[in-house]
Specification:
Layout lengths: L1 H4 L7 E3 L6 H7 L6 E4 L9 E3 L3 H14 L6 E4 L7 H15 L9 E3 L5 H6 L2
Parallel strand pairs: 1-2, 2-3, 4-5
Helix pairs in contact: 3-4
Length: 124
């Protein structure tokens, strides 16, 4: 897509590079144009990036839900990925449960291999 835009005026790119290497991103960057990378899968490159602390956000959200007496579950966890938003959110969820002295094994955790319709349908 970026290749098709090279001849046009581009002010910059906002890009989520979840499956790209540093060299892939360098090839995509339009000459002289700024690029902002989104998410936790940002390779070490000179430039700007935006990410969220998924673990802290999940911990805070789960703590809030526990204080208002809601039934909770962790749905869509991908523990097979060591550094991934899903893994980090699950860690925050479990930390909040532990902080409330709730056994995480007593709370539903639905793990998936991928975020696809087929995977979701298989758990329905």
């Amino acid at each position: 897509m970026v290749e098709g835009l090279r001849g046009r005026l581009i002010d910059g790119l906002i890009y989520s590079p979840s499956a790209l290497s540093a060299s892939d991103i360098a090839e995509l960057r339009p000459q002289g144009s700024p690029m902002i990378l989104l998410g936790e899968h940002v390779p070490d490159l000179a430039g700007d990036s935006v990410a969220i602390d998924y673990e802290a956000a999940s911990l805070q959200m789960t703590e809030h839900l526990l204080t208002i007496d809601r039934q909770i579950a962790a749905i869509g966890i991908q523990r097979n990925l060591a550094v991934d938003a899903s893994h980090l959110r699950a860690a925050g969820f479990d930390a909040a449960l532990a902080g409330a002295t709730i056994d995480p094994l007593g709370v539903p955790h639905l793990e998936v291999d991928a975020f696809t319709r087929a995977e979701g349908a298989g758990h329905g």
